[in-house]
Amino acid sequence: MMDFTSRQVPQTEIARQLDCIEQIRMRNLLQPQAPKFFCQTFGCQQNEADTERIAGMLCEMGYTRTEDAQQANVIVVNTCAVREHAEKRVFGIMGRYTHMKDTRSDLTICMCGCMVQQEHIKEKIKKSYPRVDIVFGTHMLWRFPELLLQRINGSKRIFDISGDPKGEIAEGLPVQRDEGCHAWLSIMYGCNNFCTYCIVPYVRGRERSRKPEDIEAELRCLVEQGYRDITLLGQNVNSYGKDLGIGMDFSDLLARLDAVEGEYRLRFMTSHPKDASEKLFATMANGKHISHQLHLPFQSGSNDILKRMNRGYTKEAYLALIQKAKEYMPDLVLSSDIIVGFPGETEADFQQTLDVVRQGQYDVLYTFLYSKRSGTPAATMPDAATHEEKQDRFNRLLKVQEAINQQRQDAYQDRELCVLIDGMSNSKDGVYTHCGRTDGGLLVLVRGDDLQIGDFVDVTIEKTSLRALYGRALRKGYHG
Ligand code: SAH
Ligand code: SF4
Ligand code: F3S
């Protein structure tokens, strides 16, 4: 077992970053007007959470946030590498942002996140995007203040994707969360699973768990600040704690967090089927604050493909697992990720995937066409299917799921659900003025008197669509 304390970024290092923040702040105070920053985030919730840290540091530095890149003095683009499409989009917008430097000598452009953590991408930016000022990888996030200060002080362009792939955890840096009642709460970073198609373990490093007391302290703080819908984040939350050596697993952590008093909901993602357990389902079912929502990606229904994906479970084991979860939580809202067109996938393999979709009866499915990621084992596997065949499978999958979705949505007609109001709706009829989420995370547009963001309300569902449920507020109140 590794010495956990060695994984924490030393407090002296954090203090050094806080000092850099202060130096930039003093400088910004001298400006006639507070300078502005603009952040753009690609990718998953982990990246969104990272952007909140970067935004937190920038706010402390005296920058104010703008949603208009043209107004910004600092632009930060937080990138994703999971599929080729995401990378192409980033390069597209970088052209636009760097062009702004024609007329803006005071603009600093930064790129960070998973995509830039790759050596070949770093080289491409070096050569083809000479106006990008700072490139920093996922392991360097906490050093952003220092890198920005160096560049402002006139250093040459900075490319830092170093850092320990075994990873470090930085506590005690500021965070600027999006407004509203929802908050991300990272409980661990990195991934050890090396699914053969996936770039994440290469760009995010090894699994490392935050200490339970740090997570609990952050949760208490969030609840006190009025956050009501809190999502615990990790690439595979089910392996939480394995590296800590304190005999605590994810279910134990959930139970500990659930004991924190307050009116809030706890969700988590993502769960890997190979590590999800009956203990987890029991903890969810018995919890006061834990939502009955499970995102349990199965990727493919074919045992042959699952093996070549290195997923560590079979179709049968997966189906038994979701059966068990539904026994514990009959009201479970279940979602999954699927990859269509993995190298070597045959029509028969694909039929197995459709079979799991039909048996699983998912509320939400996230479906992806396989995208080759250089450096991953799957990138060199032979692949006979054409793009058209894959696209055809993809379309058929969407059709099957759409029918299931419709049925599942319709089944909520006339049911009473507790909804957390989290925003104003833009429904065209103007009747359903607010929107919110059920315990399972389903979107509901709500009508009623005196609705406030942050209210828990019982809602009776009066109509449904594929995209949303529509309901009338009956009464306010948190049930836990
Ligand atoms: N850690 C999470 C998800 C990470 S990436 C998990 O294991 O579930 C989110 C989703 O992107 C994956 O579940 C997978 O369905 C998809 N994905 C990852 N790599 C991909 C690739 N190379 N091509 C297409 N989809 C991919
Ligand atoms: Fe990628 Fe697999 Fe890790 Fe998820 S569990 S991040 S799919 S390697
Ligand atoms: Fe993308 Fe990185 Fe998330 S590759 S999906 S932003 S972990």
Q: How would you summarize what this structure contains?
A:
This protein is α/β, with parallel strands linked by helices. The chain has 13 helices and 19 strands.
Overall description:
The chain is an alpha/beta fold and 480 residues long. It is 35% helix and 20% strand. It contains 13 helices and 19 strands. The protein has helices at 11-29, 45-60, 84-99, 119-128, 144-152, 200-204, 212-225, 250-258, 278-286, 303-309, 315-328, 347-360, 387-410; strands spanning 36-41, 64-65, 74-79, 108-113, 134-136, 158-160, 182-186, 188-189, 208-209, 229-233, 265-269, 293-295, 333-340, 364-369, 416-424, 434-438, 443-447, 456-464, 469-476. It has a six-stranded parallel beta sheet with strand order 2-1-3-4-5-6, sandwiched between helices. The protein has a five-stranded mixed β-barrel with strand order 15-16-17-19-18. Strands 7-10-11 form a three-stranded parallel beta sheet, with helices on both faces. Helix 1 crosses helix 5. The longest helix has 24 residues, at 387-410. It starts with 10 loop residues before the first helix and ends with a strand. The mean pLDDT is 95. The site of iron/sulfur cluster has 10 residues, from helix 6.
